[in-house]
Each structure stands twice: as C-alpha cells, then as structure tokens.
Task: inverse folding
C-alpha cells in the first residue's frame, strides 16, 4: 500500500477531501463512514465518540503493536449524509484509492449491507459496529464481522419475559420503521410473540422521515392492544412516544427499540418513559474483565465519562468496541496484513470490555446475551438476564 504518513483524519463531504497533518510515522488507516449530517446524525456523533476514545487511548500508548512496529491509529472519517448510495460511493473511493487498511461500517443494517459488498470486492475486512439484521450477514461474505448478535436475541428474551410476568397480555401491536434493521427487528418480534401464543392484532410500517404518526397510532389504538412494540431510531421513537401519549394510546406494556436505551430519549419524553421496556447489546452496568486497552467495562465507562461528561450508551460503546477487536486481531497476527488479520478475526475469542466476542459462520457475533431494560423512575434498570439485573421487571400499565 502507498504510504500516507501525513494523514491523521480525512473528512469526505460531498466527495471532497479535507486533510490535516500528522506526525511522520507509520500508521494504521481505518475508514470510518459516519452519518454526520441528516436524520441519523445523533447516532453518527455517538459512534464517533467511541472511535475517538479508543484512538486516543491506543495512540497514547504508542499505537497498535504489529510485530516489531507500533502503528498510530488514523481514523479517516467521511460524512455519507445518512444516505446509503453516498456511503457506497465514498467507501469505494476510499478503498480503490488505496487510502485505508480496514473499514468500520456505517451506522445501521441497511448502509452496512450495501458497503459490505464494496469491502468484499476489494478484500478489506469490515467491522460492523451497529448491524444486527441477519439479512446483512447472509451474503456469504468472508470480510464482514458484526459486533451485535442477531435481532432475535432481543425479541426472544422480551417475549419470554412478558409471557411469564404478564399472563393477561394477549394482543400485540407492532409499528416498524420501513428500513432494513427496524423492519427486520419487527419481523423477529412477530415470530417471537406468535411462537408464544400472542395474537398480533396490528402490524404496520412507517416511511423513513415520517413526522406525523397520528394516523397509524389512531389505527393502532383501535386494535386495542395489550402490548405495543415500536421499532426505529431515536428521533422516530421520541416522536412516536409523544404522539402516542397525546392520543392516549395505552397498554399494559410498551417496548421501543432502541430509543429508551438513550438518556436523551428519556429526557425528551419525560414521564412517558416510565415502564417502557427495551433491549440493546451494552449497558454501563456490565462488568466484564477484558484483554483490551481499557481492561474492563467499568474502566471504559469511567474513561468515557471523564472525557465526555456522560455515561456511554450502546452506540458509543460499539464504536470503541470495534476498535479494540481490530486492535486485538492485529496484535495476535503480528501484522496489519489483511489476510492475517482476517484469520484472527475468524478465530474469535476476544475478551473485550463490551462482551466476549466470537463470530459465527456468517460473521455475526454469537458469544453473549444482550440485556433487557425497563425505565423505572427515569432510570434504566436491567431486568434480564438475572446475573446482571439491577431491578425487577415491573408489571404496570403504560399510558
């Protein structure tokens, strides 16, 4: 590969390069596509925080050890403006111009699936920080490695929890963002609830960018569900929860993924957050001991809080986690050679602050169980699994 020792960060916006100087030394160049503008900008900003905390921690120690070399981490950011075609176009440019050694994936399953085709074409290992839909990983690619477990690992424990704790809940309504990950998640919920004898009385999709959910919520209310499930991203779920409150769409249970895992979602909806259930792949309450640069979940949480003033949520942690996995693979390989690193990724067995990470046959993580949460008095409580629970599930009406 060509030497780009003068690059520390590259922002590709509307196809242009903005280059800032760095120390003249060998480096590890990682393409980091982010939705820095557009509807997914909040999620993009969170991933960037995770990437940068890892980068800062590694470089403070001299860089990633690759045999007898230490490589300074250079993150090459580009803004794909929350649009998948832009993500594909810019990823292809980064790789074909020989500017990157490895890739971190865009946010979400849809963009990741599209960009993974580019990574596969050029043989570049891509670590997916935020894709959990099986549809992303069923392409037979050998260069795609996903941090998250399958969507069914979110729907199954929640459905089992509700079945066991609320025997009077029978009727389920599902409202899903018409986008690859949220729709895939909604389909998994439909399978999980039907398998347990629940009746799905409503299942509808809402378009990306919807600003008024009142019509769908009015129809949903008319179906008289006991359990309301909504999938989407943070801005969607703030809006849906507020409008559901205005329209008095009640039920014994509300499940919304992934919004309630974010503090800003709780702050935005206020009392409407109470008793809402959700799930994600990480929470600061976890306490894994790790072999990465952080050493443990709690050390990562402490360092993140010191840098940014808040505890990390799962998106921020995901950004740092793909960094430590790549670093561990390179250090095991003793090289940044893509084939050698890919071989180590396939072997798995990475003890990280995020979770123990190994990858299944399709490239998806299959080595841990994501926690289930409930919002209680404005606080996120882990209610499953039992060994990390910080509170009991509360069976209370949600209005």
Result:
């Amino acid at each position: 590969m060509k030497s780009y020792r003068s690059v520390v960060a590259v922002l590709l916006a509307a196809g242009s390069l903005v280059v800032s100087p760095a120390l003249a030394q060998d480096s590890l160049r990682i393409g980091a596509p982010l939705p820095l503008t557009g509807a997914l900008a909040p999620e993009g900003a969170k991933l960037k925080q995770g990437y940068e905390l890892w980068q800062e921690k590694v470089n403070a120690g001299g860089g990633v050890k690759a045999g007898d070399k230490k490589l300074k981490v250079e993150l090459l950011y580009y803004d794909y403006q929350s649009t998948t075609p832009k993500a594909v176009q810019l990823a292809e440019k980064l790789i074909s111009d020989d500017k990157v050694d490895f890739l971190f994936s865009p946010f979400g399953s849809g963009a990741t699936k599209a960009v993974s085709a580019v990574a596969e074409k050029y043989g570049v290992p891509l670590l997916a920080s935020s894709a959990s839909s099986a549809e992303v990983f069923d392409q037979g690619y050998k260069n795609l490695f996903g941090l998250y477990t399958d969507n069914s690992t979110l729907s199954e424990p929640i459905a089992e929890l509700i079945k066991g704790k609320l025997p009077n809940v029978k009727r389920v309504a599902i409202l899903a963002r018409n986008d690859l990950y949220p729709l895939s998640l909604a389909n998994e919920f439909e399978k999980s609830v039907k398998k347990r004898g629940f009746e799905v009385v409503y299942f509808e999709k809402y378009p990306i960018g919807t600003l008024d959910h009142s019509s769908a919520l009015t129809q949903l209310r008319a179906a008289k569900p006991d359990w309301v499930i909504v999938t989407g991203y943070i801005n969607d779920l703030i809006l849906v929860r507020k409008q559901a409150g205005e329209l008095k769409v009640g039920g014994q249970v509300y499940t919304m993924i992934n919004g309630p895992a974010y503090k800003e979602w709780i702050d935005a909806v206020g009392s409407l957050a109470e008793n809402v259930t959700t799930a994600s792949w990480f929470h600061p309450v976890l306490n894994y001991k790790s072999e990465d640069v952080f050493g443990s979940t709690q050390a990562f949480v402490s360092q993140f809080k010191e840098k940014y003033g808040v505890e990390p949520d799962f998106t921020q942690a995901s950004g740092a986690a793909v960094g430590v996995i790549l670093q561990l693979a390179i250090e095991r390989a003793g090289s940044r050679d893509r084939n050698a690193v890919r071989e180590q990724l396939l072997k798995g067995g990475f003890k990280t602050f995020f979770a123990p990470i190994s990858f299944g046959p399709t490239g998806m993580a299959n080595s841990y169980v994501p926690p289930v949460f409930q919002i209680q008095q404005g606080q996120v409580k882990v209610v499953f699994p039992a060994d990390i629970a910080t509170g009991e599930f509360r069976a209370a009406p949600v209005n």
Notes: Residues 57 and 293 are 7 Å apart (CA to CA). The first helix runs from residue 41 to 60.
